[in-house]
Design brief:
- Helix 5 runs parallel beside helix 7 and helix 6 packs across helix 7.
- This protein has 207 residues and is of the alpha/beta class.
- The chain is built from nine helices and five strands.
- Helix content is 45%, strand content 16%.
- It has one domain: 2-Layer Sandwich (Nucleotidyltransferase, domain 5), CATH 3.30.420.10.
- The protein starts with 5 loop residues before the first strand and ends with a helix.
Length: 207
Amino acid sequence: MQASPIVMLDFETTGMSPDQGSRITEVAALRIVEGRIVERFVSLVNCGVRIPGFITGLTGITQRMVNTAPPASEVVPRLLEFIGNDALAAHNAGFDEKFLLAESARLSLTPAHTHLICSLKLARRVLRGLPSYRLGAVAASVGIRFNGSAHRAEADAEVTAKLLIHISEHIRDAYGLALVDAELLAAINTQSAAKVPRFLEKMAAGA
């Protein structure tokens, strides 16, 4: 399906924005090669911050769990090494990338991923007409189920990886494209939904 790997990323965090002091509590990164998940990096993260009660209620991640987890100074470098210069993907990718950039900057590190692919944007452009594009809703609409608890990093990343594979296969089959790679998926993200069919038709025609 794709010529190069794509790493699906999901963070659980203490809030919505690192600019407001939110930190990561859990990470999952799943490497996708040729339409299959072939490698995983999963870890709780101790960022030395308090876990709000509503976050524990949402995710099940408790203060005790993060207090005994490896520190961000250990997890983040290992995560960046795992990602390398592969393409990075996430559902609402801007959210996860801003935490990746913020946590990396704290350690004077710079992520090296090439493309950024948002499965939320892809779903809106390719699976048009759905009532909701929240991860659970769009996954359920195409028959993808959670194997673990929603709002835990590995379960969310696995569902999103399967969704990305489904979208890629749908594009391949609908437009007769031999190769649906990270570069093409990132390019689709930049198109308006109305222009995507014509864009893919031109790609299939070699224009």
